[in-house]
Amino acid sequence: MSAASDDQPDVLTALTRKPDRQGDRALLDEILDTAQVGTLSTVIDGWPWSVPMLFARVGDDIILHGSTGAGALRQVASGAPVAFSVFVLDGIVVAETLFDHSANYRSAVVRGVARNAEIPADALDALSDKLIPGRVAETPTTTRKEIAATTALRLPIVDGEWITKARTGGPGADTDAWTGVVPVRTVFDDPITYTGDADDVPASVRALVG
């Protein structure tokens, strides 16, 4: 990652333990494009506030959304500094001793100030198409009323205000006993039909589970 601003504590911009696991911008983009849920955190009236949120990366921005009735999101949109964290579990590392058990993972934290998206409909379309690629083209255009009820935020990815970390491989301990890695991945099961004909599953949904 790029050099941080002078007024930021080093603990926010560099790994103090196992610095070799720190990644570059390519890893950041990979993590943000792989994960579907991240945690948005800030401080409100001296109290910590965190909430898991669906998100999408569009170029150098992280797109978030929520209800206009969420007071915390209104404070975030007004300029409160935030941290957005993402974690992808890739495997459980099994060692001879419990002390040497570990996990393979990719993680990222992006800090900064989120702003209202200039075109909320575009932000919502980007988020929807990340979750179900191609779904936006199959649905009616979002109405003005729906847009008015939604807060769409844009968190810029700024050099010096993000950090990544990743682990790969097996246990670090030297042993003749069995060790290994149990891979972890996210899969989509067949859709459950609630209304309509089960044979009329949209193409985007079929592609997602396929």
Structure description:
This protein is of the alpha+beta class. It has a single domain (17-207), classed as Pnp Oxidase, Chain A (Roll). Helix content is 20%, strand content 34%. The protein contains 5 helices and 9 strands; from the N terminus they run H-E-E-E-H-E-E-E-H-H-E-E-E-H. Strands 1, 2, 3, 4, 5, 6, 7, 8 and 9 form a 9-stranded antiparallel beta sheet that branches. Strand 4 and strand 5 (102-113) form a beta hairpin. The longest helix is centred in the middle third of the chain and has 12 residues, at 120-131. The mean pLDDT is 88. InterPro entries: Pyridox_Oxase-rel, Split_barrel_FMN-bd. Pfam families: Pyridox_ox_2. This is Pyridoxamine 5'-phosphate oxidase putative domain-containing protein.
Tell me the layout of helices and strands.
Layout lengths: L24 H10 L2 E8 L2 E12 L2 E7 L3 H7 L3 E14 L7 E12 L1 E2 L3 H12 L12 H5 L1 E7 L5 E6 L12 E4 L19 H7 L1
Antiparallel strand pairs: 1-2, 1-4, 2-3, 3-7, 4-5, 4-9, 5-8, 6-7
Question: Can you summarize this structure?
Answer:
The protein is of the alpha+beta class and 210 residues long.
Mean pLDDT: 88
Q: What is the annotated CATH architecture?
A: Roll
CATH class: Mainly Beta
Low-confidence stretches: none
Protein name: Pyridoxamine 5'-phosphate oxidase putative domain-containing protein
InterPro entries: Pyridox_Oxase-rel, Split_barrel_FMN-bd
Organism: Gordonia otitidis (strain DSM 44809 / CCUG 52243 / JCM 12355 / NBRC 100426 / IFM 10032)
